[in-house]
Amino acid sequence: MFLYNHFTVNEKGHLCMDGVDTVDVARQFGTPLYVMSRSYIENTINEYHRIMHENFGDNYTIAYASKALSAKFIYDIMKDLDVCCDVVSGGEIYTALKGGMAANKLHFHGGNKTKREIEYALGVGIGSFVVDNYQEIAIINNAAHNLNIKAKVILRVKPGVDAHTHEFIQTGKEDTKFGFGIKDGKAFEAIDEILRCNNLDFIGIHCHIGSQLLESKPFAMAGEIMADFMAVIREKYGITLPELIMGGGFGVKYTYNDAPESKADMIKVMADAIKASCEKNSFPVPKVTIEPGRSVVAPGGITLYEVGTVKELENIRNYVSVDGGMTDNPRYALYDARYECVIADRAGEKRDYLATIAGKCCESGDLVTKDIYIQKPMAEDILAVFTTGAYNFSMASNYNKTPRPPLVLIENGNPVLKVRGETYEDLIRLEL
Ligand SMILES: *Cc1c(COP(=O)(O)O)cnc(C)c1O
Q: Do the Cβ atoms of 109 and 133 come closer than 8 Å?
């Protein structure tokens, strides 16, 4: 009936998430409201554990790409699930540590890590750096030298795989700000540089071929290219790298038209390609890490809004305004993203009203989604937007001095407040 089966309808006709009535939750905590399912997150990670174990035995890691949703509670959940985390800023490192993650389980990514962030990361004992430019190689080496330690580094390379996804979030191609090219020899120059540094420990290579990937083919191509490249590195430098990180965001269903291949198929196809390359090159299968972000949290989250005005423009479209929008979910504005929605009060009824969901900011681009079918809305209804667990909370802003919404986690059948909503005082707390 819905995109995911943790959503049901109760006897009142209300939308439920993990059996909890979302209309009640909206009334209790107010709107707009982010609601997350702890069990969805846990089940997804456990599924990844099972699939990775099937393909690689114990020689694997899962690294949750925490930019998708970075808050103390999520690092606390990941810690309990034996998962590492990708972080991309000093702020994410800080939040991860406050959430109880061990520093040595963090991989520090990013194309322009500042010196200050690098020193902070080393000072707290970061697990590894995923190196993305020449400048940071020297900075990491110097900072490690000053602390008299060796920093583990992983080189981000561009396998040149063209993953079919939205142009803005395509990162594996040659024309991208991320990584070092294999074909143009830039990766070798970076390796030369890393090997000249006494305080760096070169442990592996990394790629990220794109986000919201719906098919396994690019994973297979990248897996083979990366594993082959590890054999080339061995040949050229005599180093057998122990680690391979296969980034690439597993796609999720945002709309009824999205049909991602299963996680099991995507990972098997990738694993088979890596293993075939290793066999061909007599290279020991490395420890393989996957980096799911969105797929861990997006389907586990919804946003609840209250319906305000409805403007029916004859023969054009029906604008249904809600009490949030681009401030809590900028993805339509950024990526033309699409979502499915229901009127949570009448979730069991037929969706036969064509609506465009508008936010309350003074921007015509402030839409949540366009031209979708929902139940006929009435003022004060609760509108639920599905699949908002990733890149919503973490991308929220205070534009138009809009307080950011609270976040509630459904745990053991109870809604638990994990992040309180901002107040008007919060909006000016930094202003002197
Ligand atoms: C963002 C990111 C991911 C995760 O992408 P999703 O689409 O959120 O799954 C993985 N690896 C790296 C390096 C990333 O930057």
A: no
Beta pairing class for 367-374 and 353-358: antiparallel
Inter-residue contact 118 to 140 (CB < 8 Å): yes
Q: For 214, how many CA atoms within 13 A lie in the half-sphere containing its CB?
A: 11
Predicted pLDDT of residue 174: 66
Residue 151: exposed, middle, or buried by beta-carbon count in 10 A (0-12, 13-18, 19+)? buried
Give pLDDT < 70 ranges for the chain: 162, 164-174
Domain residues of the chain, as ranges?
A: 7-30+300-427, 38-294
The ligand 1 atom at the shortest distance from the C-alpha of residue 211 is 7
HEC string of 335-399?
HCCCCCEEEHHHCCCCCCEEEEEECCCCCCCCEEEEEEEECCCCCCCEEEEECCCCCCHHHCCCH
Which tens digit of pLDDT belongs to each residue from 233-269?
999 999 999 999 999 899 999 999 999 999 999 999 9
Ligand 1 contact, 247 CB (< 6 A): yes
> Cα of 429 to ligand 1 centre, how many Å?
32
Query: What pLDDT is stored for residue 165 in this prediction?
Result: 58
pLDDT of residue 168: 53
Q: What is the pLDDT of residues 407-419, one digit of tens each?
A: 999 999 999 999 9
Q: Which atom of ligand 1 is nearest to the CA of 294?
A: 8
CATH fold of the domain at 7-30+300-427? Lyase, Ornithine Decarboxylase; Chain A, domain 1 (2.40.37)
263 Cβ below 6 A of ligand 1: no
Is 341 labeled as catalytic in the residue annotation?
no
Rounded-to-integer distance, Cα 279 and Cα 260, Å:
29
CATH no. for 38-294: 3.20.20.10
Return the half-sphere exposure (C-beta side, CA atoms, 13 A cut-off) of residue 159: 28
Give the HSE-up count for residue 229: Cα atoms under 13 Å, Cβ half-sphere.
27
Are the C-beta atoms of 226 and 246 separated by less than 8 Å? Answer: yes
Q: Are 174 and 158 in contact (CB under 8 A)?
A: yes
| 109 close to ligand 1 (CB < 6 Angstrom) | yes
Residue 105 Cβ < 6 Å to ligand 1: no
Check residue 179 and report its DSSP letter.
S
